[in-house]
Amino acid sequence: MPRNTSIANLKLGMCESYAAYLTRSGGADCSHSLIGAAQMKILVVGASGTLGQAVASTLGVHHELIRAGRHSGDVQVDLTDDASVQALFAQTGPLDAVVATTGRLHFGPLADMTPAQFNLGLQDKLLGQVRLALAAQHHLRSGGSITLTSGIVSAQPIRDGVNATAVNAALEGFVRAAAFDLLPRGLRINVVSPNVLVESMDDYGAYFPGFEPVSAQRAALAYQRSVEGVQSGQVITVW
To answer: Would you give the DSSP letter of residue 70?
Structure first.
């Protein structure tokens, strides 16, 4: 940012962007929350997954949703493919928020891990969500937001979780840094870091001994906070 631009001035500019956004619903000033704000048009990528369904259910109460998935939803997208992501936004048009609840990882012992296996998480969950965010910034209305998904292992590593820890930590670093570039443009970005889900314990419980799982519905509230709130550059933990 320019040396003569203070954080206070940037926050004021962001506040003014929110005021303009809220005005579309009949007027509000920036001292108020987004409760009662205009209905948002939100893209949820990964909406058919366990977490994605809960997020879509929560956000869909008050907002217009576009559900996206690799093989399902209102629109389809492959986050590992640049052209597919660009085509996605050509279909959606301008948006108020983009949420990603998707991304594959490799779980396995480091001693047996190959570069190709490690690359799975890099290309899918890490670069896939980064690719989505890079494109999304150009299709968000003023006051818009991006919400990505990491996970508890970014801070609390588990056995066979080297790929997961590396990918999730990288996503959180991306969000912290990207927030500063998005702030002058009146845009926000956050990442939600959920614990292992109650609904996923049959598949992943063995990797998380002693962890207290959270429900997908509880995790979904963090996405609502990111989308309807005012914070940016935050890792919102649900542990």
So the answer is: S
pTM: 0.86
Distance of CA 126 to CAs 42, 79, 171, 229, Å?
21, 10, 6, 24
The H or E element containing residue 175 is helix 162-182
Q: Where are the beta strands (DSSP E) in 164-224?
A: 188-194
Tell me the CA distances in angstroms from 44 to 14, 75, 107, one per residue in order: 24, 10, 25
Count of other CB atoms within 10 angstroms of residue 152: 21
Hey, is 190 helix, strand or coil?
strand
Residue 16 class from Cβ within 10 Å (0-12 exposed, 13-18 middle, 19+ buried)?
A: middle
Spatial separation of the C-alpha atoms in residues 72 and 69, rounded to whole Å: 5
- Give the list of residues 6+ apart from residue 145 with CB closer than 8 angstroms, or none: 96, 97, 98, 187, 188, 189, 190, 226, 227, 232
Task: Note whether 46 and 102 are within 8 A (CB).
Answer: yes
Amino acid at 163: N
For 203, the token pair is 């598949």
- Which residues does 2 contact at the CB level (< 8 Å), separation at least 6? none
Nearest partner of 102 among 174, 52, 152, judged by Cα: 52
pLDDT in tens, 1-45: 344 433 344 444 444 444 444 444 333 333 333 444 579 999 999
Local structure of 212: helix, strand or coil: coil
Q: Are 191 and 150 in contact (CB under 8 A)?
A: yes
Query: What is the phi/psi pair of residue 223, to 5°?
Result: -70, -40
